[in-house]
Amino acid sequence: QVQLVESGGGLVQAGGSLRLSCAPSGRTGTTYAMAWFRQAPGKEREYLASISSSGRNTFYADSVKGRFTIAGDKVKNAVYLHMNSLKPEDTAVYYCAASGIYSGSYAESYDYWGQGTQVTVSS
């Protein structure tokens, strides 16, 4: 069993930046493909970005391309989401997800999920 622990959320003013972190615990002998999603109140969970298990390939939703960057740390088997130029509409709970192979945008294809970290962007 793998547990994912997110950190780095908080309150930030519009135009500011945050870095979210996600690190797995438990069965960490496997390298995972990892992704970030978010869910705002009253909205469906939204895919943001993902990185392949090798770390060589990254993918982004059009809504965050150019503002958000996903990066992996193979030593720690961790993943980060660097968020710049934040907007009030970025306010949501941000989730980290992991998969043995899949690194696409379908939430249902990820095997493990974190509890989420709140990001609030004030105007």
Provide a quick synopsis of the model.
By secondary structure, this protein is mostly beta strands. It contains no helices and 11 strands. The model has no long low-confidence stretch (mean pLDDT 92).
Protein architecture, described:
The chain has strands spanning 2-7, 10-13, 18-26, 33-39, 46-51, 58-60, 68-73, 78-83, 92-99, 112-113, 117-122. It is globular and about 40 Å long. It contains no helices and eleven strands. The model has no long low-confidence stretch (mean pLDDT 92). The protein is mainly β and 123 residues long. The strands form two sheets. Strands 2, 4, 5, 6, 9, 10 and 11 form a seven-stranded mixed β-sheet that branches. Helix content is 0%, strand content 51%.
Largest sheet: 7 strands, mixed
Secondary structure: helix percent: under 10%
Shape annotation:
globular
- By secondary-structure content and strand pairing, the structural class works out as mainly beta
Task: Spell out the key features of this protein.
single chain, 123 residues, mainly beta, 7-stranded mixed β-sheet, 4-stranded antiparallel β-sheet, 11 strands
Outline the fold blueprint.
Blueprint: E1 2-7, E2 10-13, E3 18-26, E4 33-39, E5 46-51, E6 58-60, E7 68-73, E8 78-83, E9 92-99, E10 112-113, E11 117-122
Parallel strand pairs: 2-11
Antiparallel strand pairs: 1-3, 3-8, 4-5, 4-9, 5-6, 7-8, 9-10, 9-11
